[in-house]
C-alpha cells in the first residue's frame, strides 16, 4: 500500500476532550464560551480532509519539481501549490485563530495546532508558506502603527497577503546581534532598507500578489549587538502600486522541503515602516518567533505521525521468515516506541497551545498569569523535543522499510529529509535548550517550572486516587469507573521525574553561582530531561483518561501504548538527568585540527 497519511482525528479529539479537558477551559474563556467539542471535532475533520485530499497529493511531486526563479525574477512554486493555497484561503483556514475584528474566526490556538500538525504531515514544503502568518498577525497587531494595521492586518489575518521573517544574514545566524541590514529614516516617516538576507522562507512566491517581510535591521544610531535591532515591515508592492526595491538573487538548493522557496535576497533602498519601538525590534520579533517555534514543534509532531502510521502498515504488510514483521519483537518495539512518543508529544504540544489560549482569554487573572509562564516554559521544549523526535522518529521508522525505505519510490525518505530542517531553523535546538534553562528557568528563579511541577503532582495524586481499591458503596453509581490499580505505577514514575527535575534544577542553579558556563554545559540534557518529565505526565494523564473507558477498543489500545511508554521509553530520562547532575564535570576544549 502506498505511503500515505490518515488524519488521527480520534486521537486529536481524545487528547483535547479527555486528556486536557479543553472544553472546560474554553467555557472559562469568553472568546470560546460558545465552542463545544463536537463543533471542534467537525472543524478538525474538515482540516484533515483538506490536508489529506488537497495537500498530500502535491507532496512528492512538489519535492521532485521544487521552486525556481522565472525570467522576470519572480519565484515560482511547484505545480498545484498556488491553487491549493487559494482553496486554503477560500475555506478560511488562515484566519482560524485570529480575532473576528480583523476577519478571523476567533477559534482557539489548540485547534490551530491540530491544523498545523496535519498540514505539515501531509506537505511540509507547502505548509511553510502559511506557517508564518499567525506570528506576523500577532506582531503587527501588538506592535504595528494604526496605519500599518489598517493597511495590512486584515490582509494577513485572512491569508490574502503572506508574510516572511527576514532575520538571517551570512554572518548572523544564531547570533542575530551581528546583523548589518541598514534602515535609514526618511522625511515621510518611512524607512529605506538596504542589505542582504539569506535563507528567507517564502520571501517571494506566486501564491499571493503581495508578500510582507518583517525585517530585522539597524537604525543609524543603533547600539551594537542584539539590543540595537529594529523591526520593519517591508512589502513586495508599495501602496501606490510600484514594485518595492528588493530582489531575490537565488534559491537555496536544499536537502528537503523543496516545495518551500528559501530565498537569498537584497534590499536595495526598499521602503519599509517601523514596527514597534526603535531598537526594540527583537522584543517585537519574539512574538512572531514564539508562534513560529510552536508551529515548528508541530511540524516535528506531524512528521512523527506520518512516519509512525506508515511504519505500522509496513510491519503488517511485509513478511519475512514466513510471518509479518509485526510478529518480531524488534519491530514491535520500534513501532510501539514511535506510537507512545508521538501520542504523548501530541498531548504536550496541544497543552502548550491551550496555555497560550488561557494566557490571552481566561476569565481568571491568576490562571492567565500561570498560563503565560507555562507557555513560555513549554515553547522551547515543544520546538526542540518534538523536532528532534520528528527527525529521529522518521529515521527509526525508515528501518521498518528495510532497503526499500532508502529508495525514493516509498516516501519515507522524503519525510526523513524534510524533518531534518526543523531541528535547525527558528532558533536551533541548542539555542532552545539555552533559552529554556537560562531564560525560562534560572532567570525566573524556577517559578514557572515549579507551577508546572505542582500541576504534575496533581496529576500523580489523581492517578493514585484512581488506583485506590474499589469499595462497593450504596451511594456509588453502578456505572462508576472501577479502580485502576496501575495508576499507582504511573503516579510513582511521574513523581520520580518531578523529583529529578527539582534536583537537577537546584544543582544547576547552585553550580551557576560561581561558574557562569555551567548551565551551557548541560542545557541540552536539561531540555531532554524536562521533555521526559513531560512524557511521564502525558503518559499518566492519557492512561488515566483511557482507564475510565477501557471497555472501548480505542481506549484499551491507548492504555496499552501509554503503559509501554512508561516502561520502555521513560528509562531514557535517567541518562539525561544523570548528566545534568554531573554539571561539575569538566568539558575538555576541542583541539584544533
Ligand atoms: C530551509 C531553511 C529555512 C530557513 N528559514 C528562515 C527564515 O524564514 N527566516 C530567517 O531569518 N532565517 C531562516 N533560516 C535560517 C535559520 O534560522 C538559521 O540557519 C539558524 O538560525 C542557524 O543559523 P546558522 O545557519 O548561521 O548556524 P550557526 O548559528 O552558525 O550555528 C551552527 C551550529 O552551532 C550551534 N550554535 C551556535 N551558537 C551556539 C551557542 N551559543 N551555543 C550552543 N550552540 C550554538 C548551533 O546550534 C548549530 O548547531 C532558514 C534556514 C534554512 C536552512
Question: Which short descriptors sum up this protein?
Answer:
593 residues, alpha+beta, Butyryl-CoA Dehydrogenase, subunit A, domain 2, two-stranded antiparallel sheet, 11 strands, binds flavin-adenine dinucleotide
Q: What multimeric state do the chains show? A: single chain
Number of helical stretches of at least 4 residues: 18
Which molecules are bound in this entry? flavin-adenine dinucleotide
Structural class: alpha+beta
What does the radius of gyration come to? 24 Å
Strand content: 5-15%
Cα end-to-end separation:
49 Å
Q: Which term fits the overall shape?
A: globular
Low-confidence blocks of residues: none
Number of strands: 11
SSE sequence, one letter per element = HHHHEEHHHHEEEEEEEHEEHHHHHHHHH
Main sheet, how many strands, which sense, barrel? 7 strands, mixed
Portion of residues in helices? 55-70%
What's the overall average pLDDT, rounded? 95
Structure description:
This protein is an alpha+beta fold and 593 residues long. Among the domains are: 162-278, Butyryl-CoA Dehydrogenase, subunit A, domain 2; 433-468 and 483-581. Helix content is 56%, strand content 10%. It has 18 helices and 11 strands. Strands 3, 4, 5, 6, 7, 8 and 9 form a 7-stranded mixed beta sheet that branches. A two-stranded antiparallel ribbon has the order 1-2. Strand 4 and strand 5 form a beta hairpin. It is globular. The model has no long low-confidence stretch (mean pLDDT 95). The structure holds flavin-adenine dinucleotide (FAD). The site of flavin-adenine dinucleotide (FAD) has 18 residues, from strand 3, strand 5 and helix 13.
Amino acid at each position: 500500500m502506498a505511503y500515505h497519511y490518515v488524519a488521527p482525528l480520534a486521537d486529536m479529539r481524545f487528547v483535547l476532550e479527555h486528556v486536557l479537558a479543553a472544553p472546560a477551559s474554553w467555557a472559562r474563556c469568553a472568546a470560546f464560551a460558545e465552542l463545544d467539542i463536537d463543533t471542534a471535532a467537525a472543524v478538525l475533520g474538515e482540516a484533515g480532509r483538506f490536508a489529506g485530499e488537497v495537500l498530500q497529493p502535491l507532496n512528492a511531486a512538489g519535492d521532485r519539481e521544487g521552486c525556481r526563479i522565472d525570467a522576470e525574477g519572480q519565484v515560482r512554486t511547484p505545480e498545484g501549490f498556488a491553487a491549493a493555497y487559494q482553496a486554503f484561503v477560500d475555506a478560511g483556514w488562515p484566519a482560524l485563530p485570529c480575532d473576528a475584528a480583523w476577519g478571523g474566526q476567533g477559534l482557539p490556538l489548540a485547534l490551530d495546532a491540530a491544523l498545523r500538525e496535519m498540514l505539515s504531515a501531509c506537505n511540509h514544503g507547502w505548509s511553510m508558506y502559511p506557517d508564518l502568518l499567525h506570528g506576523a498577525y500577532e506582531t503587527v497587531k501588538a506592535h504595528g502603527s494604526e496605519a500599518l494595521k489598517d493597511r495590512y492586518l486584515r490582509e494577513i489575518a485572512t491569508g490574502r497577503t503572506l508574510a516572511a521573517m527576514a532575520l538571517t544574514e551570512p554572518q548572523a545566524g544564531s547570533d542575530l546581534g551581528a546583523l548589518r541590514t541598514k534602515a535609514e529614516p526618511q522625511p515621510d516617516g518611512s524607512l529605506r532598507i538596504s542589505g542582504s538576507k539569506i535563507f528567507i522562507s517564502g520571501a517571494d512566491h506566486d501564491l499571493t500578489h503581495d508578500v510582507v517581510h518583517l525585517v530585522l535591521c539597524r537604525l543609524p544610531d543603533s547600539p551594537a549587538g542584539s539590543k540595537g535591532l529594529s523591526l520593519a515591515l517591508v512589502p513586495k508592492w508599495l501602496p501606490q502600486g510600484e514594485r518595492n526595491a528588493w530582489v531575490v538573487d537565488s534559491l537555496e538548493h536544499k536537502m528537503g522541503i523543496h516545495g518551500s522557496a528559501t530565498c537569498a535576497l537584497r534590499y536595495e533602498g526598499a521602503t519599509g515602516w517601523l514596527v514597534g519601538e526603535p531598537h526594540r525590534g527583537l522584543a517585537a520579533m519574539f512574538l512572531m518567533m514564539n508562534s513560529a517555534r510552536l508551529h515548528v514543534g508541530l511540524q516535528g509532531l506531524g512528521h512523527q505521525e506520518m512516519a509512525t502510521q506508515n511504519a505500522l502498515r509496513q510491519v503488517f504488510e511485509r513478511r519475512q521468515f514466513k510471518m509479518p514483521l509485526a510478529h518480531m519483537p524488534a519491530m514491535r518495539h520500534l513501532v510501539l516506541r514511535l506510537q507512545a512518543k508521538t501520542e504523548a508529544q501530541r498531548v504536550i504540544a496541544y497543552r502548550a497551545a491551550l496555555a497560550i489560549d488561557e494566557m490571552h482569554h481566561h476569565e481568571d487573572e491568576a490562571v492567565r498569569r500561570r498560563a503565560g509562564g507555562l507557555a513560555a516554559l513549554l515553547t522551547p521544549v515543544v520546538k526542540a523535543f518534538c523536532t528532534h523526535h520528528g527527525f529521529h522518529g522518521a529515521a527509526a521508522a525508515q528501518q521498518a522499510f528495510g532497503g526499500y525505505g532508502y529508495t525514493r519510490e516509498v516516501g519515507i525518505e522524503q519525510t526523513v529529509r524534510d524533518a531534518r530542517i526543523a531541528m535547525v531553523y527558528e532558533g536551533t535546538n541548542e539555542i532552545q535548550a539555552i533559552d529554556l534553562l537560562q531564560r525560562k528557568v534560572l532567570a525566573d528563579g524556577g517559578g514557572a517550572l515549579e507551577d508546572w511541577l505542582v500541576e504534575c503532582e496533581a496529576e500523580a495524586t489523581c492517578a493514585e486516587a484512581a488506583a485506590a481499591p474499589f469499595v462497593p458503596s450504596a451511594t456509588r453509581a453502578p456505572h462508576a469507573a472501577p479502580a485502576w490499580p496501575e495508576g499507582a505505577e504511573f503516579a510513582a514514575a511521574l513523581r520520580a521525574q518531578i523529583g529529578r527535575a527539582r534536583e537537577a534544577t537546584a544543582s544547576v542553579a547552585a553550580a551557576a553561582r560561581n561558574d557562569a558556563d555551567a548551565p551551557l554545559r548541560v542545557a541540552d540534557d536539561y531540555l531532554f530531561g524536562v521533555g521526559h518529565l513531560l512524557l511521564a505526565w502525558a503518559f499518566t494523564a492519557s492512561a488515566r483518561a483511557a482507564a475510565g473507558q477501557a471497555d472501548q477498543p480505542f481506549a484499551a489500545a491507548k492504555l496499552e501504548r501509554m503503559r509501554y511508554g512508561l516502561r520502555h521509553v521513560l528509562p531514557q530520562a535517567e541518562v539525561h538527568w544523570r548528566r545534568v547532575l554531573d554539571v561539575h564535570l569538566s568539558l575538555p576544549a576541542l583541539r584544533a585540527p
